[in-house]
Amino acid sequence: MRTVPNKTDLKKLLRSAQSQGLSVGFVPTMGALHEGHLSLVRRSKKDNAVTVASIFVNPTQFGPNEDFERYPRDPERDQSLLSREKVDYLYAPSKEDIYAPGSSTYVDETELSQVMCGAFRPGHFRGVCTVVFRLFQIVQPDRAYFGQKDAQQLRIIEKMAEDLGLDIRIIGCPTLREGDGLAMSSRNAYLSEEERTVAPQIYAALKEAQSAFTGGERSVSRVLETAKDALGRHPAIQTQYLELRRWRDLRVEEAITEKSVLAFAGYLGKTRLIDNVILTP
Ligand code: AMP
Predict the structure, then answer these.
(1) Mean model confidence pLDDT for the chain
(2) Which of the four pLDDT bands, split at 50, 70 and 90, describes residue 221?
(3) pLDDT per position as a tens digit, 60-87
(4) Nearest atom in ligand 1 to 176's CA
(5) Closest CA to 239 of 214, 205, 208, 264
(6) CB within 8 Å of 114: residues ≥ 6 apart
(7) Beta bridge partners of 243
(8) How far is CA 272 from CA 141, 187, 190, 192, 240, in A?
(9) CA 207, CA 216: separation in Å to the nearest integer?
(10) For ligand 1, atom 8, which residue shows the shortest CA distance?
(11) If you measure from the C-alpha of residue 239 to the centroid of ligand 1, how many angstroms do you get, rounded to a whole number?
(12) Catalytic: 37?
């Protein structure tokens, strides 16, 4: 694996590979890597001749009171994990390599970004879309890999690619979980021992609701009620939102008639966790 810290060198390497007809897969991350990230890398390795991963803790997607400063960073460990996976190029840029000085231009998806996490994290998806667009311009991948764990982010990136006619296939990949069901996340490192024992109950609640759906329940309010009751048994879990929305446009419906997402966001102590399950009739 070759670590490349600046876009000029990366572009040279990638344009040369692309001119030989080699396909490029891209896995953008913020580092503090876990098996979830590595599953995206493995999928890219399977699909493409060349795999590029990036590590960039993007300041523009964090709110002023969020965890940008203390976001976990472990570049050496990350490098060795990616190198073990035989990633071809690791792009680890500085802020200046991504954002021109005095930068004031953003990519702003204005509909799907308004709800769910977007309602609680103003500007978050604008930061995400802007950085992903910048990274796409630099890497110009054939395929880019995103986790279903961040369901709204995945849908918004898909929408951005559709809206802007980006010639990049956005590939959604399943959520990797710990043995007890907790969705893997770099932020799990923030959890105290006690919080960590309660955290799997988030997925347990989502699964209970998913079982109701699988058993034939199609009423959005009743599926939500099932998840809400299950979460209610664990007062340490402070729900920020629990919502069931149609996947296509993230609209709220009364009945589940097409692919939908049941999504949770909330706090365990000071740590904000998200998770979701997909419901497909
Ligand atoms: P992050 O470093 O948190 O920005 O995540 C980088 C990519 O990894 C995003 O596409 C995430 O959705 C994905 N990802 C994070 N956690 C998981 C997980 N548990 N399973 C699968 N993909 C994940």
Answers:
(1) 98
(2) very high
(3) 999 999 999 999 999 999 999 999 999 9
(4) 20
(5) 264
(6) none
(7) 263
(8) 31, 8, 9, 13, 9
(9) 14
(10) 37
(11) 21
(12) yes
How far apart (Å, rounded) are the C-alpha atoms in residues 222 and 219?
5
Q: What does the longest C-alpha to C-alpha distance in the chain come to?
A: 58
What's the gap in Å between 200 CA and the centre of ligand 1? 17
* Nearest CA-CA partner of 43 in 87, 90, 100: 87
- What residue ranges line ligand 1, CB within 6 angstroms? 29-30, 36-37, 39-40, 146-147, 149-150, 173, 175-176, 183-186
Tell me phi and psi for residue 277, to 5 degrees.
Answer: -130, 150
Whole-angstrom distance, CA of residue 278 vs CA of residue 263: 9
Question: How many C-beta neighbours within 10 Å does residue 138 have?
Answer: 21
Atom 12 in ligand 1: residue holding the nearest Cα: 147
